[in-house]
Amino acid sequence: MTSPSPTLSDSSGSSKHDNPDSWEIVEGLRGAPATIQEPYGHHGFLLKRRKWPLKGWHKRYFVLEKGIMKYGKREGDIKKGKVHGCIDVGLSVMSIKKKSMCIDLDTEDNLYHLKVKSPEVFEEWVSKLRNHRVFRQNEISTYPERHLFHPHTASSPSLNDSMRRLEEAENYLQELNLLLKSMEVMHRTCSAPAITTLQVKKKDKRPRRWRSKNNGKEGKSTLQVPCMSSASPRLHASNPNLSTSDPPFQESSPESPDSPTPVSRLQEDFCRLANNIYSNLKSAYTSLSSERNRIRHSIDLQECPAGSHSLVHQTSNDSRASIPESITEFFDAQEYLLSSSSSENEVSDDDSYISDVSDTISMDTCDGATHRHYSVSSEARMVRRRSTLPAPCSSSSVSLWNILRNNIGKDLSKVAMPVELNEPLNTLQRLTEELEYSELLDLANQTADPYQRMVYVASFAISAYACTYSRAGSKPFNPVLGETYECDRPDKGFRFIAEQVSHHPPVSACHADSTNFTFWQDVRWKNKFWGRTMEIVPMGTTHVTLPEFGDHYEWNKVTSCIHNILSGQRWIEHYGEMSIRNSNSSECQCKVTFVKARSFSSTVNEVEAVITDSDGTVVHSLFGKWNEALFQGAPPSATCLWRANSLPENHEQYYGFTQFAVELNELDPALRALLPPTDTRFRPDQRLLEEGDIGGAEEQKQRLEQLQRDRRRVKQDNNMKHQPRFFNRNDTWISNNTYWEQRREPGFRKIEFPILW
Predict the structure, then answer these.
(1) Which phi and psi (to 5°) does residue 411 adopt?
(2) Is the whole-model pTM more than 0.70?
(3) Which end of the chain is more exposed for a tag (fewer CB within 10 A), N or C?
(4) Do 249 and 260 meet the contact criterion of CB atoms below 8 Å apart?
């Protein structure tokens, strides 16, 4: 007895109506499952109605394949895995309105309103959706255990509860987004110069020029430039649009229909919504964690036979080789579950897809790693390094506006800043932080493929910016002329020296060597203040050589910009293009693009790179975020090349330092006798700031600056020029390779140095 096969006329039919302006519900599959040929995919732009409470339509790029429709902002985003939503057409109720050329897809969790402007395009999309819908429903009916992954099917109570809390958090986020825009309007208005009452009265005739597009509220009638709040200078948030503190406003008049919302009320609403979101997300995270543990436990019970060892001890070479494929499958399933339940977040174009890509590095890399000991001592001494600073940072009461208002558009390297704006590290130590992930250069020196070597070198160049993410609230000390710094790290396999070789213009030179690489650069910065932002433009070239292959890589640095200098939450971004080339070979090049952030978008800190051959053909592509991770390939099968180390606990209270930065200014008693007296660790103002003595640090800072002026005056009077001790200048400043020799014999205590402090 054969079962009747479904007919296309039945399955693709619609409930007909005589009125062309009425909605037609497209009927689904009828009859028993049968073999149906897979339809061709379809893609293109459609208009999609924005989610409530946002109004209007926006254009999105849709891709329809095998009954699943994904969409994003543009085609390139879909290829990169930046999917805003995913719709299972087979599990959705589809209805169309021919006159207005609208298509509605009801997924039970979300209702998608789509529209096109051309009748031909409308008919084409309707036809494709019908064919894919029948195909998808037939697949689900034939293989329900393989294709049906609806999150509400046989889900646990904890999972249902977490989904409910996530939906509540999404509503709160949308409300919070509108509130943030209102607060940002008030911030922009507040940072303007003072306006007299007479001028305001003249502008009252045209109040809409000051009206916010989002909430229709005006700015204050009397505005003042605010001083920085005590909480604003140090803390940093992952979303640059968020602000944890607001400048004080003056109430000008009693509230009227056109008067703005009071700041106190906005702050209360902001805190209330933030607390609601936090509690919901925390509960959802707890539920999802318990659900994950339950699933892991059930998988272990299914896969582990009786009397066998744990899965950890069973791992073999075969199972290792299958890890990337299994993770890829899990990524696809996880992406579908998340998108089918929450569908999208149109308020912020989040790039959380990066954290889902497989975080795997080839096992050959781990097994083939060489011992990395390169120290001045014959035996690597085990050093227990500190895990925190002696004292937390103090809140700043300095008004940056009073300091910077007369220096807009000028180079700030010659402007004296109070010590409260500094962090207890200086620029020479900041250069050392670029070597925190030096293991990437070790991998490059052990890789035979020249294109993959370039991949690791590019990853190292990008990783140098990771330490800046949480450091927008303060600036490093400027080194005095002749100041030095050394960092001998046997655990990381390198030794590093740096020296301030010029004061006007300020130039810092550094050199690091290892058994696997040599690293050097000289850098000069230009700082310019543009009213609300400070731009930092580095000049100089970074050099890396790999002795195993004779490669010599060179690259430039990109521009950095600190936002919200005067008020609000400070945050830093890097943008521009970095070109990496091997001066000893033209076989491959690399172009790295640090993407500039856009207004009112969470798409920040993105970086993209391509490695090309001599003909310009792309061999490898990289993507990620300079503060989080970097991946090679295309999602979802991309491989993680580098991931930033997690920040220490309570790092906001300690200048946002990474663990590596915490260790840089530590003065070990055994090291004290070996260092030259010009080493940064002996600098008194920086040491006092680290210990929390702000007054003493400011006093010492002024004393050191005066000493430097006196030394410069004496040299000018005697026609003397400063000669750096450990670096020589050719085209660039290069180490003369005498530092470690003099340190060992005769020792710095027997050598005369200038008195810097």
Answers:
(1) -75, 120
(2) no
(3) N
(4) no
Residue 567 CA to chain centroid, in angstroms? 22
Residue position matching structure tokens 């004080």: 248
Structure tokens at 81: 């895995």
Closest CA to 708 of 458, 498, 503, 410: 503
Tokens of 80: 């990169």
Residues 669/721, Cβ–Cβ less than 8 Å = no
Q: Are 340 and 88 in contact (CB under 8 A)?
A: yes
461-472: per-residue pLDDT in tens?
A: 999 999 999 988
d(CA 423, CA 694): 11
Three-class DSSP category at 722: coil
Q: What is the pLDDT of residue 463?
A: 95
Which residues have CB under 8 Å from 691's CB, separation 6+?
Answer: 390, 391
Question: How far is the C-alpha of 675 from the C-alpha of 369, rounded, in Å?
Answer: 31
* β-pair partners for 114: 48, 103
Residue with tokens 């680290």: 690
Q: At 492, is the secondary structure helix, strand, or coil?
A: coil
For residue 636, cis peptide bond before it (omega within 30 degrees of 0): yes
Angstrom distance (rounded) from CA 177 to CA 241: 10
**Distance of CA 654 to CAs 388, 417, 573, 708, Å?**
8, 20, 21, 29
**512 near 520, Cβ under 8 Å?**
yes
Q: Which residues of the chain have pLDDT under 70?
A: 1-21, 30-35, 52-54, 143-165, 167, 181, 183-263, 275, 278-280, 282-283, 285-287, 289-382, 396-416, 599-602
Bridge-based pairing of strands 422-426 and 629-632 is unpaired
Q: Please report how the helices 323-342 and 157-190 are oriented relative to each other, as an axis angle in degrees rounded to 10.
A: 70
Distance from chain centroid for Cα 316: 35
Neighbouring residues of 531: CB distance < 8 A, sequence distance ≥ 6: 191, 408
Degrees, nearest 5: CA angle 19-22-27: 105
- What gap in Å lies between CA 371 and CA 491, rounded to an integer? 9
Report the alpha-carbon angle 349-355-357, nearest 5.
110
The conformation of residue 174, written as its DSSP 8-state character, comes to: H
User: Radius of gyration over alpha carbons of the chain, in Å?
Assistant: 31
Q: Distance between CA 254 and CA 251 in Å, rounded?
A: 8
Which of 544, 533, 616, 631 has the alpha carbon at shortest distance from 580? 544
CA 667 – CA 521 distance, rounded (Å): 25
For residue 324, say if its preceding peptide bond is cis, omega within 30 degrees of 0. no
Contact 409, 529 (CB under 8 A): yes
Tell me the C-alpha distance between 727 and 724, whole Å.
Answer: 6
Retrieve residue 552's tokens.
Answer: 């010599």
Quote the CA–CA distance of 220 and 260 in Å, as a whole number. 7
Answer for the pair 666, 386: CB distance below 8 angstroms, yes or no. Answer: yes
pLDDT (tens digit, 9 = 90+) per residue, 699-727?
A: 999 999 899 888 999 988 888 888 999 99
Instruction: Identify which of 41, 7, 58 has the alpha carbon closest to the alpha carbon of residue 125.
Output: 41
Closest CA to 41 of 71, 76, 60, 66: 66
For residue 599, what are the contacts with CB-CB under 8 A and spacing of at least 6? none
How many other CB atoms are there within 10 angstroms of residue 348's CB atom?
A: 15
CA distance 232 to 623: 32
Tokens linked to 50: 């924005």
Interatomic CA distance for residues 449 and 452, integer angstroms: 5
